[in-house]
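Ticket #4471: complex job returned nothing on first submit. Input attached below:
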Amino acid sequence: MDQGAHHAAEQGSLLLQDQLCFALYAASRSVTTRYRPLLEELGLTYPQYLVMLVLWDRDSVSVRELGTALQLESSTLSPLLKRLEAGGLIRRERRSDDERSVAIRLTQDGADLREKARAVPLAIGEAMGLTPEQDATAKHLLRLLTANVTRD
Amino acid sequence: MDQGAHHAAEQGSLLLQDQLCFALYAASRSVTTRYRPLLEELGLTYPQYLVMLVLWDRDSVSVRELGTALQLESSTLSPLLKRLEAGGLIRRERRSDDERSVAIRLTQDGADLREKARAVPLAIGEAMGLTPEQDATAKHLLRLLTANVTRD
DNA sequence: CTCGATTAAGTTGCGCACGATTTAATCGAG
DNA sequence: CTCGATTAAATCGTGCGCAACTTAATCGAG
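Support reply: We reran it on our side without changes. The output follows.
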């Protein structure tokens, strides 16, 4: 009952510590900070790593498809892809059937990097320290929240 | 059992959609995007809003204390606070007892903005669309994850 | 076929976010 | 008291992240 009262008071609270949005913001940044040294060994930033995850799964993706998968704008992806290209991990070529579209492909170096990246998700999973059930619950709630917040 | 197999396969997966870290990253950005138009009416960005939440709770905070509360570096906060000061919402003054430290205080405009901000957390809570139980679970898991990832 | 609408990618400007470094004030062992 | 170590902010450089806009290619109604 005290719990109930406390909970009701939290609705619409302006206290930082009550905000789910802050827990989310802090968690996201703490995770990318944890990734940083691991990814540094691969020569990648965290968003670059996410792009590579997509490319290791399916070769040849358009900028638009990357944007859909990662929920990022071309204004974010274009410069990022330019840096990956400069680093020799990807190639960019206009599609012949639709000259507006740009196909992103892995270079050999980019494909080879996959093996070095194998250990990364396990290391992070370990650091997060959630049980498989907690991990699944968190993913479920985050996807639900994202879907709700993104609609309309 | 198929579930178990599927779950075991997820451990160490390099598929974007299996990664909790990506769900976290996407959720965090989708929430701040949802905040944007609401905060725009207050003349605030999302990180600026978080700073204001702290100041509405306790007047006079040092940059260091803000950094502890928000888990942000002075290299992030200093320019942000300069913008809030330029916007007339806060004042900055060196502490007389320790000239290294800078006390951040609300101006009258900054204090007044609190009333206009009242509706924001409720609107966002509504948009997130989680039940009170899901909200509490999410907060709990995110704080646990942050604590685990941050330690050592 | 044509020309206005749509679509894909890129550019620009601004505000984070953070590591590395700098400047200045305080602390504290000897 | 003193001077090396620590601490608090700020500065600098780089890379996102996104709104607004531009450029160029494709689409499609008439």
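Confidence is low (pLDDT under 50) at residues 1-5 of chain A. Closing as resolved unless it happens again.
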